[in-house]
Design brief:
Blueprint (H helix, E strand, L loop, with lengths): L3 E7 L2 H13 L6 E6 L5 H15 L5 E5 L5 H6 L8 E5 L3 H9 L5 H9 L1
Parallel strand pairs: 1-2, 1-3, 3-4
Helix pairs in contact: 1-4, 4-5
Length: 118
């Protein structure tokens, strides 16, 4: 099993980055999914949806959540999940970070988080 990757970003940013990464890498070595947070979203509904997605994606190795912008609504929603043992959140997502995470998908959750930050 590998760490699952959940991308939570503004509008369609995550989908665009994931599609670009898949064009470069072809194979996605981990389970990966995107959640788009739109302007004027229902925050409680988004929290519930992210919670269900984490539960579905976590196969025992945890979920690394990648986010585009610290301090904005999608990131603030993710604060709700920081206390979970099986979840780590990294902000500042860009294509290079995503490709790095995909290339090192065999690492543990904590090691993969550090690799994303590097």
């Amino acid at each position: 099993m590998k760490v699952s990757i959940l991308i939570v970003t503004h509008s369609n940013v995550g989908n665009v980055l994931l599609n670009a990464a898949k064009t470069i890498m072809v194979d996605t070595p981990s389970e990966m999914s995107c959640i788009n947070i739109w302007n004027q979203c229902d925050v409680e509904l988004e929290i519930s949806y992210i919670d269900k997605m984490i539960q579905t994606m976590d196969k025992g190795e945890g979920v690394l959540i990648l986010n585009d912008l610290y301090g904005a609504t999608p990131c603030n929603i993710l604060f709700k999940f920081l206390e979970r043992q099986s979840v780590r959140v990294v902000t500042g997502l860009n294509l290079s970070m995503l490709l790095t995470v995909m290339n090192y998908s065999g690492l543990s959750l904590d090691d993969l988080m550090v690799k994303a930050i590097e």
